[in-house]
Amino acid sequence: MSIARKGDFPTTHWTLVARLRSDDSAVAKRALEDLVTQYRYTLYAYIRRRGLNHCDAEDALQDFLLKLLNARALECMEETRGRLRGYLGMALGRFLANWRRGEARRVAVVRELPTDAQCEDEARYARERFLENDTPERMFDRKWGHALMKRVMERLEAKCVEQGRGALFVALRPVLLAGGSLRGQDGAAIAASLGMSDCALRVALNRHLRDYRAMLEEEVRQTVENPAEVEDEIAYLKAIFSEPPRNSEARYGRAEQDGQS
What we know:
Radius of gyration: 20 Å
Strand content: under 5%
Structural class: mainly alpha
Number of domains: 2
């Protein structure tokens, strides 16, 4: 059992959803900071895609985060089958429908990002290439999936480096990002670069895939209210990446039912 350091909150076994719902305002605020650390650009890009300029998007995002700090903010997550992704997309859409620039409250809800970090959000958004029928809702889900998988890859890299297998991670990273198969890859060249046999490389890849899957499940479990929803959430996010955008928008809380929207 890990021992909490001074200043830490005893939330080791809490999911992000549970922490956001905590009656302890300090725990909830810390959870919101963790949420923003991982998914801030996802929220920002959704707001921009809804038509707000950079400055208004920053103000609207701060107001939305302030709203989330309300102790009752996550009560209606059952509308989205207890999935934080679905809840935030739905709640942010409703919030923006009523948000007005003149009502912006510049309250420091979470630690303010440096100006250059905020500029990077805008520069990143400027590089986006959206399809005409790529709705804000679908884009939100895709960016959510990207952020989640980035977190998984960072954890996997850290584990490999800690175990002295950093070079192996670097070599296999493109394989993992391509779906985890050596098909279409020069496996012999990868193995030779690492001083490994082809068989040893395949064993290492299988170990990487097991670790990746375990970490992916752990990260998704942080964002769902019911652990039974983990597999469905993973399947939905995979579908988002594998199918092209449709012309029609699916309502949050309903799109997950068939995993095809």
